[in-house]
Amino acid sequence: MCLAVPFKIISIDGNDAVGEYEGIFRKIRVDFIKSLDIGDYVMVHAGFAIEKLDEKQALLDIEAFKELEEAFR
Amino acid sequence: MSLACENGILKYLFEKDGIRINFMEVCGTHTHAIARAGIKALLPDNIRLISGPGCPVCVTAQETIDAYLTLSERDDVIIATYGDMIRVPGSERGDNLARRRALGSRVAVVYSPVDAVDIAANNPDKTVVFLGVGFETTAPGTAASIGIAKERNVHNYCVYSMLKRVEPALRALLDSPDFDISGFIVPGHVAAIIGERGFDFLASEYKKPSVITGFEPEDIMGSIYSLIKQIRSGRAELENKYERLVKKEGNIAAIDAIEKYLYVRDDVWRGFSNISKAGFGIKEEYSDFDAEKRFDIKTVLKPAPAGCLCGEIIKGRKEPLDCRLFGCICTPEDPIGPCMVSGEGACSAAFKYRSLI
Questions:
Q1: CA atoms of B136 and B163, how far apart (whole Å)
Q2: In CATH terms, is domain A5-71 a member of 2.30.30.140?
Q3: What's the CATH number for B57-165+250-294?
Q4: This model's pTM is above 0.95
Q5: pLDDT tens figures, B4-38
Q6: Which of B28, B137, B215 sits opposite A50 (nearest CB)?
Q7: What topology is assigned to B3-53+179-240 in CATH?
Q8: What is the value of ipTM here, to two decimals?
Q9: How many angstroms separate the CA of residue B35 from the nearest CA in chain A?
């Protein structure tokens, strides 16, 4: 339940945004994130961004996710 | 983290002093990450990882499950739920939302409570009841969905709040006699909301070494290493090893959303019975969006399924393999208890990754 996935913000319209993770695009609510810009990475849980990540760390997370997927495929 | 560094950690772990050390991972997502990565198999015999009450589906009381199953019988109701809840068994053998749906109930699986608001907007002749299960990570979004529905004038949307607070359950465990846990792997995404300060009590009041931890295998191994270092040096501190996400004060805007729509109440957890201040209800001024008020839901205390050890497993007093039902009578295809169903349940992890533990 507390699983969260890092999404890259593609567009922002008020508290609605679109995020991308590994080619998957999803609507995200960003009510809880201050000063968000296109290109930022956010950790998303149940459709809501719960916190912002810096890009370097988000890319590391995505690489680690890929490794896990490969390792257990 | 490089392989060399991991080997360094393993070497350190194996330079043991022989005493048995139990660490509790509180979060169900950690339980599955640990099982998937085979971390238990990497640890020396004297270091054990025990799963705690960190699977929100698993800690939901049997009577609550029966209450929403009964609600699903209504022609005017659509149940909207996370997929985790769809096969959680009711008191009657074989009863669950998937079966109810096959028999004609309207049950929709959603990714987000906002999706449930959309379903309500598109079905004005029905009332959508969103099953609000989760801990503090999930509570802000669930709370905000009430505001979103109100703002959009979607008045056929309501939430059945099963939201729970982690701290009171941990205190209940820590205050219980013969609780034998030396340190905590602290749930990183709950901490992202309530902050480091939300878990200060573990070290400051209970003198338990604790580490706020991310969800990669490297994060978890690093935290075990930090916990052992604390124990060896006689320290009991709260460390934040998930600083890329978790701030000292947490996410203030998310906490504000919780405080705007929800109030703290006593709540029944599976395995614990009633715990003071361990749940969230919906505030009176938003009672139109509260399924308990709207449908006058009354729960009746129900016993756990016969032979099921979920209640003890949730408290870390038993492990999945201690249960006589595990893997024979109780399987993911035909579960007896919720720990075998949920994607965060300890039995589900033990069954799915049994070759790695």
A1: 8
A2: yes
A3: 3.40.50.11740
A4: no
A5: 455 566 666 666 566 789 999 999 999 999 999 89
A6: B137
A7: Rossmann fold (3.40.50)
A8: 0.90
A9: 12
